[in-house]
Design brief:
Blueprint: E1 2-7, H1 15-27, E2 32-36, E3 49-52, E4 79-82, E5 88-91, H2 94-103, E6 108-113, H3 115-126, E7 131-135, H4 151-172, E8 175-180, H5 187-195, E9 200-202, H6 210-222, E10 228-233, H7 260-272, E11 276-280, H8 292-310, E12 316-321, E13 324-329, H9 330-333, H10 345-352
Parallel strand pairs: 1-2, 1-6, 6-7, 7-12, 8-10, 8-11, 9-10
Antiparallel strand pairs: 2-3, 4-5, 12-13
Helix pairs in contact: 1-8, 4-5, 6-7
């Protein structure tokens, strides 16, 4: 058996642990493994395809990033091609990818990615490619799995930042608004905000009223607590409003959201009169060594993906359904997007201990 591994979309702590586990599991079966660089770009002549051996994955399990690099611009069904005038058009290069994979003798592909990569995997599977998916996103927004690797590391990075912000905010009697990742799902904001004892948490699932946010801040001020910490997911938006977009997106690339913390900070200062600062945590959440939990989960996913290849579970994704790793059809995974359940006990508990969700 000759299998290929690709890492698409944004990077996440734990990717190297998946690669390492999958390679070692496959090699110990006597299989050959190759790595496709930058998503599927390596199969489209935009990057290279490299052999993955026991030696090439030695000592990478604890490292952040991915030795195969990653890309969120490599959708072969909607590949951006630059025109002479500098603009981009989308072209379908999936047939080219299929031909190149066949030429290289690839018999199966393990693709590690989030919703976008899994959608590509589903379409490739329908074209005849034998694909197994591994869920990867720090946002934890892939259905069918309790959690994804990278999420725990991102949450811990955000908690550490909140802990540091508390001391400076209290020293200056300031309000600090910290923006974390979470385009459509507020899991990072919710988990880090509750664990970091934030005062306000704003999620994409609960449109906020800036008046309610300011009420919470002024109530704390009246009670002698002259500082506040607001944690906001980048995809949060006001009631009756829209998500804040930044920059231009290439064909096949999701729209970029963010910058909402600065807008909220300006509004809070205008309404309350309190000095307010904003901070975008950004790609710090993607970087660094994975936590022990993420290393273990990623390793389990890597081993399970190779077993799924052996069992010919084509078109399936490995998933954590505690306490076991199982496989679920990618078609089922993509039927419904995973979002924060606003009736979840964590949301209820947050409200009961005094955290405001701006509603």
């Amino acid at each position: 058996m000759r299998i290929a591994i690709s890492t698409g979309g944004g990077d996440a702590p734990g990717l190297n642990a998946v690669i390492r586990a999958a390679v070692l599991t496959a090699v110990n079966r006597g299989w050959e493994v190759i790595g496709v660089k930058r998503g599927f770009a390596g199969l489209l002549g935009e990057d290279e395809v490299i052999p993955l051996t026991r030696e090439s994955v030695r000592g990478i399990g604890h490292l952040g990033g991915t030795i195969l690099r990653a890309s969120n611009r490599g959708n072969p069904f909607c590949y951006p091609r630059k025109q002479p005038d500098g603009s981009y058009v989308a072209v379908d290069r999936s047939d080219e990818l299929m031909e190149n994979a066949q030429r290289l003798g690839i018999e199966a592909v393990i693709t590690i990615g989030g919703d976008g990569s899994l959608e590509i995997a589903r379409q490739l599977c329908h074209k005849g490619m034998r694909v197994i998916g591994v869920p990867k996103t720090i946002d934890n927004d892939v259905s069918g799995t309790v959690t994804t690797f990278g999420f725990d590391t991102a949450v811990n990075t955000a908690i550490e930042a909140i802990d540091k912000l508390h001391t400076t905010a209290e020293s200056h009697d300031r309000v600090i608004v910290m923006e974390v990742m979470g385009r459509d799902a507020g899991f990072i904001a919710l988990h880090s905000g509750v664990a970091g004892t934030a005062d306000v948490i704003l999620l994409p699932e609960i449109p906020y009223d800036i008046g309610k946010v300011c009420e919470k801040i002024l109530a704390r001020d009246a009670a002698g607590r002259h500082f506040s910490i607001v944690v906001v997911a980048e995809g949060a938006y006001p009631k009756g409003g829209e998500v804040h977009l930044i920059g231009e997106s290439l064909p096949g690339q999701a729209k970029r959201v963010g910058g909402v913390a600065e807008l909220i900070a300006r509004e809070i200062q205008a309404v309350t009169g309190k000095e307010t600062r904003s901070l975008v945590l950004g790609h710090l959440q993607r970087g660094g060594m994975p936590t022990g939990y993420d290393r273990l989960l990623a390793t389990r996913f890597g081993g399970a993906a190779v077993r799924a290849v052996a069992d010919e579970k084509w078109g399936h994704m490995v998933a954590l359904q505690t306490p076991h790793i199982v496989t679920v059809p990618i078609d089922d995974v993509l039927k419904e997007k995973k979002r924060v359940d606003v009736a979840h006990d964590l949301v209820q508990t947050a409200r009961e201990i005094g955290i405001s969700f701006g509603d």
